[in-house]
Amino acid sequence: MAAPSGARGTARPATTNPHSPTKPGRPLRVAIIGGGPGGLYAATLLKRLDPTRDITVWERNAPDDTFGFGVVLSDETLGGIEHADPRVHEALQRDFVRWDDIDIVHRDTLHTSGGHGFAALGRKRLLEILHTRCRELGVDLRFRTEAPKDLPRTHDLVIAADGVHSTTRETYADAFRPHLTPHRCRYIWLAADFPFDAFRFEIAETEHGVMQLHAYPFASDASTVIIEMREEVWHAAGFDELDEAESIERCAKIFAQALRGRPLKSNNSTWTTFRTVVNERWSHGNVVLLGDAAHTAHFSIGSGTKLAVEDALALAACLEERDTLEEALAAYEAERRPVVASTQRAARASLEWFENLALYLDQPPRQFAFNLLTRSRRVTHDNLRLRDPRFTEAVEHEFGCPPGTPPMFTPFRLRGLTLRNRVVVSPMDMYSAVDGVPGDFHLVHLGARALGGAGLVMTEMVCVSEEGRITPGCAGLYTGRQAEAWRRVTDFVHAQAPGTAIGVQLGHSGRKGSTKRMWEGMDQSLPEGNWPLVAASALPYKPYGQTPRELSRAGLTDIREQFAAAAQRAARAGFDLLELHCAHGYLLSGFLSPLTNRRTDAYGGSLEKRLRFPLEVFDAVRNVWPGERPMTVRISATDWAEGGTSAEDAVEIARAFAAHGADAIDVSTGQVVADERPEFGRSYQTPFADRIRHTTGAPVIAVGAISSWDDVNSLILAGRADLCALARPHLYDPHWTLHAAAEQGYTGPGADWPAPYRAGSRRPQTGRTDAPKPRLTLGG
Prior knowledge:
Layout: E1 29-33, H1 37-49, E2 54-58, E3 70-73, H2 75-84, H3 86-95, E4 97-99, E5 102-106, E6 109-113, E7 118-122, H4 123-137, E8 140-142, H5 151-154, E9 157-160, H6 167-171, H7 173-176, E10 178-192, E11 199-206, E12 209-219, E13 222-230, H8 231-236, H9 244-254, E14 264-265, E15 272-279, E16 283-284, E17 287-289, H10 304-321, H11 325-355, H12 365-373, H13 381-387, H14 389-399, E18 412-414, E19 417-419, E20 423-425, H15 440-451, E21 456-463, H16 480-496, E22 501-507, H17 518-521, E23 534-535, E24 549-550, H18 553-572, E25 577-582, H19 587-592, H20 607-610, H21 612-624, E26 631-636, H22 647-659, E27 664-668, H23 686-696, E28 700-703, H24 709-718, E29 723-726, H25 728-732, H26 736-743
Parallel strand pairs: 1-2, 1-9, 2-8, 5-11, 9-17, 20-21, 20-29, 21-22, 22-25, 23-24, 25-26, 26-27, 27-28, 28-29
Antiparallel strand pairs: 3-7, 4-7, 5-6, 10-13, 10-14, 10-15, 11-12, 12-13, 16-17, 18-19
């Protein structure tokens, strides 16, 4: 696709308009760089909104040149096209191939899931339809022509739809500030000369490693076929030494059964590595990015053309609605950025699933298929159950769900403790103790959540010493009085919520102590009454914070004994489970991360040495904790900071604790260093738990932005987690688990309502919810 060439340039400010259109926000002279679907569709929409516009599309390739073969569009996108341009929609409808099934082939076993609803057509045909519509409307299409360098000066608006390798984006890189992230797989776009019956995923376990085929029909006589594998597999198989024809022939042989012995076809196809494109800004002056120039999403969720078309719809609508070009471009970015970010998170989850495909090969066959279908978190247990109840019931049966029992309400055993369901009330600091003693607040807070149906309710981090508190309001287990107060809580839970277990999380604040309560100023030092801090190394958590003292050998011994003494009190207080807090930058976490442990003795340096003290503490606690009661460990699986704990480190940390007797690993992330850059999103920490579970075999607790019962069912049934810990949802609704049972129509031992509450066990009626109105509607 064409783009301005040459050195970096300066775009004209969006607020100036030498051509003086009747409304500043509706530019009359528009240049579109790139003749792909997004650029062409933007041209048709803008011309229809104002036929007086002078619109030119610049495309460096010939009109019938295209890369790739088929295009998949969702019903949502087609609905937007139908309302904005019925003529284009009608033309598309005539050429669409539609199907409902997804076939997954693994180890010679085929599993089919139906009810998904796909529509596809050839990319070349899509371009022909848009070319015809542009010409009907009077858009000037210039093929085999490079876009002039001075378009921002000579036009009111320049739309850069020049693809993933956008020269426009590079020209104004200082303004757009792009970030391009390469990934671990190589892939190649090819085609077969017959239509597959379904969207097909097929796994080939070769002597060189795992390879996968993605395929779907796009015409009555053709299908798109994508072959993908990790970089090291690609090299081991010798593809780096093969030319295009040889590569295609080799791929056809590997997947001969799927291809029915037919050859594969190429269209100047080359092996490439997918890159995720993110831009800090989408517009600069009167230049705006659209489609792959602005953002990319991995092909495994089929969203590149979809996003570009939706960008065009939103941009046209914002230009119509806003008074100035500057306002319109800002509104366009504000509208589309969250949608794109959500899609990119889903796409990244999908591409990483395929990158790590080898981890899942030994899953039971139906669970493997379910895991693949739900990899992006866009398809979930609940909507898959609606699309294909027979398939979902088969997966549940294989998993061991009794009839009518959602996965989240199946029991799970940890050592001598059997949890009635897979829901955990995650540890949440309440900062409401006095002198470390839990009071009425803790009784009501934890008691209410125990009555709410969770399988396991966890305390906040309970500190092992007065100096190990985060704030003056932190609870402790360093005195007998504190232990007696905790006994009051555990007695209530065991008596009034007999199906619920209660666990204690033991920890020491380390360098993050002596601070204000969260609502008074999180991580801010106390104005008075501070206490001295200790840590693995003498590094403050924040530049203005208190610098801790590096622990000596004697200090390490004292703290190890404090943990053991607190564990003995916890056992006498009646807790069912104990979790050792080795996450979030607190003391034990500080030993694990290379960013916070700069020691040069036996407790610093290599990962093995950084693990030494946390493992010594674990062993001391396990030694005094009753043998039949389980112990878990919470870790930060990444520091979200360069040079910190990596995903590979996290696997080894989990493996070490499991070898020492940890019954499960509670997998969190971050909060280790103040300058972290976490990648938030729906269940964003679960991939770390998933990796640990499938690499080490240790049970895992997933935590972090898991907010719906559908998320829990999906994660458990896919085998990504054994338990799911939820925090904020239980602050919003103490009876979250019981309400989840009611909403799913479940009654049974996994969610037994307390007798006084049974009258409320049916879901209340709700009012109707109207569907959103079409984004842009134009006549035929």
